[in-house]
Amino acid sequence: MRVSGQRRTTIKDVAEAAEVGVATVSRVLSGTGFASPATREKVLAAAARLDYRPSALGRNLRRQRTGGIGLLIPDITDTFYARLADGVLTCAQSAGEPVMIGTTGDDPEREAQLIGSLIEESVDRVIAVPSGDGEMWGPAFRAGLSVVFAERPVQGRENVPSVVTDDRSGVRTAVEYLAGLGHRRIAFLARHGQAQRARAFREALAALGVPVDEELIVRAHASRDSAYAAASGLFQHRPDLTAVLAGGNMLGEAAVLAARELDIRVPRDVSLIMFDDVPWAELCSPPLTVISQPAQDMGYRAAELVLREGRRSRTVTLPTELIVRGSCGPRR
Amino acid sequence: MRVSGQRRTTIKDVAEAAEVGVATVSRVLSGTGFASPATREKVLAAAARLDYRPSALGRNLRRQRTGGIGLLIPDITDTFYARLADGVLTCAQSAGEPVMIGTTGDDPEREAQLIGSLIEESVDRVIAVPSGDGEMWGPAFRAGLSVVFAERPVQGRENVPSVVTDDRSGVRTAVEYLAGLGHRRIAFLARHGQAQRARAFREALAALGVPVDEELIVRAHASRDSAYAAASGLFQHRPDLTAVLAGGNMLGEAAVLAARELDIRVPRDVSLIMFDDVPWAELCSPPLTVISQPAQDMGYRAAELVLREGRRSRTVTLPTELIVRGSCGPRR
DNA sequence: AACCATGATGGAATCGTTTCCATGAGGGTG
DNA sequence: CACCCTCATGGAAACGATTCCATCATGGTT
User: Which of A25, A249, B56, B204 can pair with A121 through a Cys bridge, CB separation 3.0 to 4.6 Å?
Assistant: First the structure.
């Protein structure tokens, strides 16, 4: 314990203190290679005595890679992504891996920038909720990163392992439930990047013989303001709709708010189903019927996937569940 | 653009391509030192042609520090901390600094572990919502980290810059408001680590001449389950209370849930004020009266503080605001 | 004309670790 | 007894950047 201005204790100091070579210290401490019990003891004692912590900097430079996981999500303020991040962190921390986080705001350009910065930092494992198309991931793959996509796959990168929710089935369940209540003019509030869900929505309608009205499919960006604008605009332009499926919790929140603002009562005037179950869905008035998604699990699985780099694994699809509460009623 | 198995382009490659020395390349690219316009041009061209990105690893090792910011929060799932993290990320990303995030779960031991891992990674700037006492931060200061505390100060480390909310004033406002409605038996649901607020709560009661009932001050850990248990236990043990102040949004959520479960109506039977304004507070039934805190701003300011390392600055105190909605009523 | 200040430049050391390789000791087998 | 194989060990190279320092050229001053 020296005064400030001290030099970091290095492996060399330990070697000196233990009266062995640095190579031996490295071998003992990293557990690889041979060492006699006596030497091992000496080294361990010296390391403990000097309170030695190996520098990740030196190790990483030599190994030509940074341990750790890069995590790219659209918005940490969205509880869905927060839970996803929590899953990643839980897995990563139990594996002792640091996590570098970045938020893209669903902006491909910012995503590209963050990818660049991860490459610069030699982070070689990335979990991402991709915003853009597959192109911007070119540099990442060229640099040899192992990537796992979460929540959404990327078209054109089908062989990249991904962990996604079963959008098709989730959307179908919701649409069938609404149709069963008599609804025909059902709107879908989607975020950019949810093309998959929009497609599933069209398919589900078509399967039920309901004509698809493209004007009822509205897109918003990953921000509260954008979500509110989309929801409010939808209600105002199309007062004839009787049900809304919100593609995420922020869109659901916006829908409730916009409906309240416009004096549209839920579920009397409009039925509402929201993707993603969040704690407040139950506290809301009325309690929201939702399609729950295992966000935290998704993050955890993605982290597992990206950590066992060896085996190439296909994409994992996680199930959704319809939780009926009080925000849907028969067509008025 | 080579096939896989390629070597990273290094500064040496650029030097060769530009027909100059590596030192010159470094000077040009990092902007320091002298270089003739002609050479500068050559270097820049070569770097662009080879798509050169300097390795952060090499730089960091030489500089003996990692750029970037370590961020330690109790729970990323709590929207308050998510917003705080968002503020940090916004500032850090606009400064081009990577952020390493870790969640402590308000567990001092995990916190200590994460601090250790930050030191190992040579991260030299940390923003933390501290869980434990000042002791575990010893190693961090000894290692020369520059630390900024957020949300809570740490006793015994008063000279560490911090960004906190004005707990005293926030609590006082809430208590005075409740007292003004006639409430006397007011409970406080606190999280561990909110000793500051509990103290302010006692002071505010004392200032109003209301006797302090220690049994009405209940503590929970940073998890939904713990919060619910605390809230439910409180309502069951003390059916005589008429108002509750929740120290955080998860505690408020738990209080609403527990009250509903026990058939306690808000605000008829019990008035409720929650610390931290969240989007769902308005959607809740009844809409929740809250003490809003500038969480995102707090994170941003903390990041600013930790980034301009030079000047030592005192702690910043951010104001709170009482937002009256519908969860408080006169004493029954 | 000699000298010096200044700017441009590149070689080489350095950061802390891992890992390759050479060396040496010791024991078992032919 | 010679030989070889194995294990233990340490020196030194490598990773990729920054930066100190020496060298050299140039132009201005005395």
Answer: B56
